Amino acid sequence: MAYWLFKSEPDVFGWDDLVAKGDRGEEWDGVRNYQARNNMRAMKKGDLGLFYHSNQGKEAVGICEVSAEIHPDSTTDDPRWECVDVKAVKPLPRFVSLEQAKAEPRLKDMALVKNTRLSVQPVSDEEWAVVMELAGL
DNA sequence: GCCAACGTTGGC
DNA sequence: GCCAACGTTGGC
């Protein structure tokens, strides 16, 4: 199983919004970046991801799960853009901030730290384990 | 609100 | 196919 990180601005669509969607989850639409899309193409149903609040909070707040694999993005007619569905699994007992990630040597290569503008990122097994530790899981 | 980083677009 | 111009993201 692979791990990922999904970025969203809480003002637009935050963790609480995903939780409100329940088990059906929500389409991760609106991605217009090839790298991010390619990451979504690689996702399998059941993969887990960190839900990260960009701009406000700047912290990972919860764990979500890929509930549907890649399919066309319903918000555009452009066939290039596809997306997956995600659903909330559980909130993190302790949020893990960007600041913490930057301060943690084991996370120095994390895409979150190195490539701040990428909205859908892969997370390695090792990075996932460290984040879980910081989150109190 | 500013600006750096970076991706995309379009002229040549 | 290169590269300048432009747009967007996201941290600060």
From TrEMBL:
<protein>
    <submittedName>
        <fullName>EVE domain-containing protein</fullName>
    </submittedName>
</protein>
<feature type="domain" description="EVE">
    <location>
        <begin position="2"/>
        <end position="134"/>
    </location>
</feature>
<dbReference type="InterPro" id="IPR002740">
    <property type="entry name" value="EVE_domain"/>
</dbReference>
<dbReference type="InterPro" id="IPR047197">
    <property type="entry name" value="THYN1-like_EVE"/>
</dbReference>
<dbReference type="InterPro" id="IPR052181">
    <property type="entry name" value="5hmC_binding"/>
</dbReference>
<dbReference type="Pfam" id="PF01878">
    <property type="entry name" value="EVE"/>
</dbReference>
<dbReference type="InterPro" id="IPR015947">
    <property type="entry name" value="PUA-like_sf"/>
</dbReference>
